């Protein structure tokens, strides 16, 4: 005979409604109770009837997750953490990639709206007005963007930028190039504002170069401007831009950090392997926090707010004191 929800309730010593909440809104159940219910369900071989649940609750158990570029190593740790965290509440995550295209982002959201209970928008490029308009069709949580009246998970890149410039100051750098990213990027706006304020505070000369594509090609293409600026150190929009610049500089016969110091943003696995000094962005923690906020928004009347996660500078081998008299080739 098939195992029923009543069997699980009896085995775990809870009411049937508690078992139901465990598999439809796990964040509303005490963690110890939830663990007991899940253990009983696993031991009995119980699997929730998703179709029946959808009919009774008008929820699919599916969530959407939209990212700007799935090939960017910033996104996979966030995606994996969000998927694993969602599964603990018996939810499944559908992932979509916009390839940095605003129109594709809007189309994906509209097509997903009828198929999911809610969606995570990670570093969206849409305007705040359009995000607000689309949120009427499907509940949103936004990561690394803060539209008005929508729950958000933010990674404090401004703090990381301040740490990066303080590190460069401590090494003796006075001329810093900032390689900016896409204009519509919230991260870029925060990074640029914080770097500008920190440069003014420390009396540095900041050369803003961009916008640049958030790719290795964008970093490589920025190399002539960096060299022409006379900067001795670079803070790049992300690790891909930093690594593209680093490769181009070395291809031109320049040493990093001997001739130029380079700092990225994200602390991706590639940055770790290449010895890049970078700002660590807590992507996995952001994925888990975003799922928690989204489930609250879907299942509860209280409106979740904003979660801000700390960042930190990770110093590796791509930064050093400036070379005496370096003026570029």
What does this structure look like?
- This protein is of the alpha/beta class and 329 residues long.
- It folds into 3 domains: 5-55, 434 Repressor (Amino-terminal Domain); 56-153 and 283-308, Rossmann fold, CATH 3.40.50; 157-281, Rossmann fold.
- Helices cover 46% and strands 17% of the residues.
- The protein has helices spanning 5-12, 16-24, 31-44, 50-57, 75-87, 102-112, 128-134, 157-171, 186-202, 216-221, 223-229, 239-251, 269-274, 283-299, and strands spanning 62-67, 92-97, 118-122, 140-143, 152-155, 175-179, 205-209, 233-236, 261-266, 277-280, 306-309, 312-314.
- The strands form 2 sheets. A 6-stranded parallel β-sheet has the order 2-1-3-4-5-11, with helices on both faces.
- Helix 1 (5-12) crosses helix 2, helix 5 (75-87) packs across helix 14 (283-299) and helix 8 packs parallel to helix 9.
- Residues 3-57 form the HTH lacI-type domain.
- This is LacI family transcriptional regulator.
- Keywords: DNA-binding, Transcription, Transcription regulation.
């Amino acid at each position: 005979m098939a195992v029923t929800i009543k069997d699980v309730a009896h085995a775990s010593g809870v009411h049937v409604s508690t078992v139901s909440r465990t598999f439809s809104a796990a964040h509303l159940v005490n963690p110890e109770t939830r663990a007991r219910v899940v253990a009983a369900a696993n031991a009995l071989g119980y699997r929730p009837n998703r179709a029946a649940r959808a009919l009774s609750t008008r929820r699919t158990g599916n969530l959407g997750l939209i990212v700007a570029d799935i090939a960017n190593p910033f996104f996979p740790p966030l995606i994996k953490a969000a998927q694993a965290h969602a599964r603990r509440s018996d939810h499944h995550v559908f992932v979509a990639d916009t390839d940095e295209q605003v129109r594709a982002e809007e189309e994906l959201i509209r097509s997903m709206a009828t198929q999911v209970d809610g969606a995570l928008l990670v570093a969206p490029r849409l305007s705040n007005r359009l995000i607000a308009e689309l949120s009427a069709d499907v509940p949103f949580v936004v990561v690394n963007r803060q539209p008005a009246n929508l729950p958000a998970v933010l990674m404090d890149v401004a703090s990381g930028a301040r740490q990066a410039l303080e590190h460069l100051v401590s090494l003796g750098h006075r001329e810093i190039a900032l390689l900016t990213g896409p204009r519509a990027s919230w991260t870029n706006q925060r990074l640029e504002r914080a770097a500008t304020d920190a440069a003014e505070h420390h009396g540095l000369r900041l050369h803003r170069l961009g916008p640049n594509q958030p790719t290795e090609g964008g970093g490589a293409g920025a190399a002539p401007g960096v060299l022409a600026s006379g900067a001795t150190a670079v803070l790049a929009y992300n690790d891909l831009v930093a690594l593209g610049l680093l490769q181009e500089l070395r291809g031109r016969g320049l040493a990093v950090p001997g001739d130029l110091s380079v700092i990225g943003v994200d602390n991706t696995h590639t940055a770790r392997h290449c010895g890049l000094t970078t700002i660590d962005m807590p992507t996995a923690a952001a994925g888990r926090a975003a799922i928690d906020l989204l489930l609250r928004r879907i299942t509860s009347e209280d409106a979740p707010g904003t979660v801000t996660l700390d960042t930190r500078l990770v110093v590796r081998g791509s930064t050093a004191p400036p070379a005496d008299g370096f003026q570029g080739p």
